[in-house]
Each structure stands twice: as C-alpha cells, then as structure tokens.
Design brief:
With 481 residues, this protein is of the alpha/beta class. The chain folds into 2 domains: 310 residues, Alpha-Beta Barrel (TIM Barrel); 95 residues, Immunoglobulin-like. 27% of the residues lie in helices and 26% in strands. Strand 11, helix 9 and strand 12 form a beta-alpha-beta unit. It is globular and about 65 Å long.
Length: 481
C-alpha cells in the first residue's frame, strides 16, 4: 500500500469514528436510564418524572375546595392531626390556586350561605401569604341548578359585592356559574351578573364553569341527559367573560373493542384540540375541572376507578399540557381536593381530615414543585379493573383479579334496614360500607379483592331490629385469581 492510500484510509477511519461518537452523544442526550425499563425517551411521562425538574411558575396548579372547609369558624373546617388545615396542606403540595366552591353550608342554622368580609379575609389572607389565589364560584346549596334560579342576581350582590371580597389581592377571578345550560334566560342572567361585578371591580377576571345544552332525553332513572361536548355553543359568552373554563372527564370510563381506560395524555390533547377547533377563541383557557374516581366510592358519573388510575390521570393531564407548551392554556384545576360530605368522595385526593393522601396528590406535587414527598415512577403499573353491579346482576358469578374493585349500586326500599355478609372476609377489603345516597336514591358499597379464592357477597333485608331474622335480596359470587 502506498503512502497516499495509507493516509486516505486513516482519514476515512477517523471520520467514521467521529460520526459514531457524535451519534452516541445525541442518543445519550435524548435518552436516560430508568430503574424499570432500561432506556426511556425524554418525552415519556415516566422518564420526565425520574428527576426533579423546575415547575412552570406561571402555570396554575389548582384544586376545587369548599369555603366551609377553609374557614376556621365553620362547622366543617378541616384540620389534620398535625394542626394543618387545607391551606397548609395545599401549600406543601405546590397548589397555587383554589376554585372556592360553596355547595355545603358552613353553619348549621345559617341559611344565607354568604360570608362576611372578616370571614373572607381570614381565609384569603392566609391563602395570600402562601401564594394561593382564589377563583370564587358563585353558588350555594340552593343555587346550583342547570336552570339558574331567579334569586341569583340578589345572591351575587350579597355573596361578592356587599362584603367587598373582590378587592382582596388573593382573588384571581370569579366563576359566574357552574355548568349552566345554555338558554336565553341563563345567558342573560350571567351577563347581568358580569355587568354588576365589572361596575365595581373592573379588573376582576370573569369566567363560566363549562356549559351544556339540553337534549330533552332521559335515562332509565328519569334523569335528563345533557350534551356536554357542544363546544362551539360557548361562544355565546365571548363578550362578557375574560377566559374560558373547561371541564374534562372520561378518564375512568372504559371504551373501545378492548373495553379499556383511555390514555390520559392523548385524551387530554384530543379534548383540547376539539375545543380549540370549535370554540375559535383567542381568550385564555383554564381546565377548571378534571379528575378520575379513586376507587373508594362510586362517583356521580357511575365510575369507580382506583387510586392508581386517578394518579395516572393526573400525570397524563399535566404531562400533556406541559408538552403542548401552549400559552393560551393557563392551568389545570382538579376536582376534588377533599370530600364534600361525611363519606369519602370518589373524586377526592385527600381524606381523613387531611391525614391521608391519595397518590394523585403526590403527582400534583411532583408537577407543581418539581419533586414529591414520596418516590414516583409514572405511569403506575397494574391498574385495577373495576366492576359496577346493579339489581340486574343478582345471582351472577364474576371473575376478578387481586386488587380489582367492585362497586354495588342498588335500588332498595329506603324504609328497610340492610346488612352485607361475606363468605370469607379476608378476601375483600371494604372501601365503602353499604350506605344510602339520598342524592341518587340508591344504596351503594365498594369492595376490593385482596387475595385469591372464592367469595360470596350477600345483601340481606333485616326483618327485625337485630337483623337475626332476615331475607336475601342480592347475592353475587366471585372467583378471584
């Protein structure tokens, strides 16, 4: 080999070596190792949570929470064993906005459902000191219907204007109404409320908490069915609101040929794309409600879910919005922070007076603060399946896997007493005992499979005070693998 050819070969070899090294560095920059599955792309939700990342400080990470649970003088004030209330807990989780709802009365004998300026200041001052803003929803235990009642304007005056609450620096804005039907009268009343507020507080941001249109059809329980995806109809609010509030559900509903839960990130991206396409607005948009049932109770949408599914839903929503990097999307507010009644709420991420956090609470913290108090590897694997049983499932046999969740929702005589027996109590965990839900006019219970085996669940109607004399009204058998 002559010298020229020798140096040519050396040069080509060096060039190829440089290309290989550069390629390896590019691959290394786009992948990082993880303990669960080797190399993970940086755009994978699991990979993005392997290390602490600085949060987007301008993005709103929020929760829906009741005013009665925030006010220290309220009968429903929530404080945990460490002396922390829901504001303290929210600050630790990195929450920077509350959508303050008013669906449960704060005081037993007060039917006004309003709060004084000192009461508002007590809550808002503490929120302001820890960097939490308030989006105040106009509602009460008597003002929540899809058709806005005629007393609504007077309530706007007493709830927000007479007490000067909107001058407080913690107030981010006002939600004029939650999920109203779009009718001429409803729109007129909300527009009037907007004018009332802007007349005294011109800088207050206004929104409306999603919307629906009537279909004039009814389900088997004679409940009206509404159309919730009438996205373009929201343009009727364009002239008197400052931003749109979107409500996003369906993560815990199975569909498709495999009867499976949707991918939450993809579900979120598709939803936002459809809303944007049909709404055709340049106004900011806030996801003001989203969530998935936690497996502790049956939701008002007849879903059950699980703690794992709920956690993955939160991660999917946050990751989708983070990946989109859309300045028109200003944040995501989950539903619900804490249960609104004495029993566990299917949507809640905190329970037991703030002493117990569902995993979704730590997912929120991870995205809001860039770190969480417990290690997380998302998405969580082995999400349980769920089954909702009704009267028509009497005498059936079901196959379960360990950790699967069974909900029971039945129409029974409200005037009778009932009890539940399990053939082997070691096989099931009772997430919710059999209770009567007055809102649904149904008896409900939730159980979770703990171990393999055969199980019989029976609901008995008590025929005497001690339930020693009883009759079987519902029986289901389970094979747990």
């Amino acid at each position: 080999m002559n010298k020229d050819k020798h140096w040519l070969l050396v040069s080509v070899t060096l060039l190829l070596l440089i290309i290989v090294l550069v390629s390896f560095q590019v691959i290394s920059a786009n992948y990082r190792t993880g303990p669960d599955s080797g190399f993970l792309p940086t755009n994978s939700p699991s990979a993005s949570l392997k290390q602490s990342e600085p949060p987007n400080s301008s993005f709103l990470y929020g929760v829906n929470v009741e005013m009665s649970q925030l006010l220290p003088t309220s009968n429903k004030y929530v404080v945990n064993d460490e002396g922390e209330d829901l504001i303290d807990i929210a600050a630790k989780l990195g929450i920077n906005i509350f959508r303050i709802t008013n669906g449960t009365p704060a005081f037993t004998n007060d039917l006004n459902y309003t709060f004084t300026k000192p009461q508002w200041d007590l809550v808002l001052d503490k929120m302001h000191n820890v960097g939490i803003q308030a989006l105040i929803l106009i509602e009460s235990p008597t003002i929540y219907q899809k058709i806005i009642p005629p007393e609504y304007p007077d309530f706007v005056q007493s709830y927000l204007l007479d007490n000067d609450v909107l001058s407080h620096p913690a107030v981010f804005g006002v939600d004029l109404y939650n999920e109203p039907l779009i009718t001429e009268d409803n729109v007129s009343m909300m527009r009037t409320a907007a004018m009332m507020i802007k007349a005294g507080y011109s800088q207050t941001r206004l929104t409306i908490g999603w919307w629906a249109i009537a279909t004039n059809t009814y389900d088997e329980d004679n409940q009206e069915i509404y159309k919730w995806d009438a996205y373009s109809e929201g343009r009727v609010f364009e002239d008197f609101i400052d931003f749109y509030s979107l409500h996003l559900y369906g993560f815990d509903t199975k569909s498709g040929i495999f009867h499976s839960f949707p991918d939450p990130a993809k579900f979120t991206r598709n939803f936002v794309a459809k809303v944007r396409q049909e709404l055709q607005t340049e106004k900011p948009m806030l996801i003001e409600e989203f969530g998935a049932a936690n497996g502790a109770a049956i939701s008002d949408q007849d879903t059950i879910g699980s703690s794992e599914l709920q956690a993955n839903t939160y991660a999917g929503v946050y990751q989708a919005l983070s990946d989109m990097k859309d300045p028109q999307l200003i944040g995501a507010v989950s539903y619900q922070f804490y249960q609104r009644s004495e029993t566990v709420d299917a949507w809640a991420i905190v329970k037991n007076k703030g002493n117990y956090f569902f995993t979704a609470a730590y997912v929120l913290q991870k995205y809001a603060k860039g770190m969480s108090d417990i290690p997380l590897s998302l998405p969580l694997k082995d999400v349980p399946n769920d089954f909702l049983l009704t009267n028509k499932d009497n005498r059936k046999t079901l196959r379960l896997k360990v950790n699967d969740i069974v909900g029971i929702k039945m129409s029974l005589d409200q005037g009778s007493a009932y009890t539940v027996t399990l053939a082997d109590e070691s096989l099931f965990l009772t997430n919710q005992p059999l209770l009567y839900d007055a809102t649904e006019d149904k008896f409900q219970a939730v159980f979770q499979a703990l171990h393999p085996g055969n199980q019989d669940l029976t609901i008995w109607e008590c025929l005497d005070e001690n339930c020693t004399d009883r009759q079987d009204v519902f029986t289901v058998s389970f094979t747990i693998k």
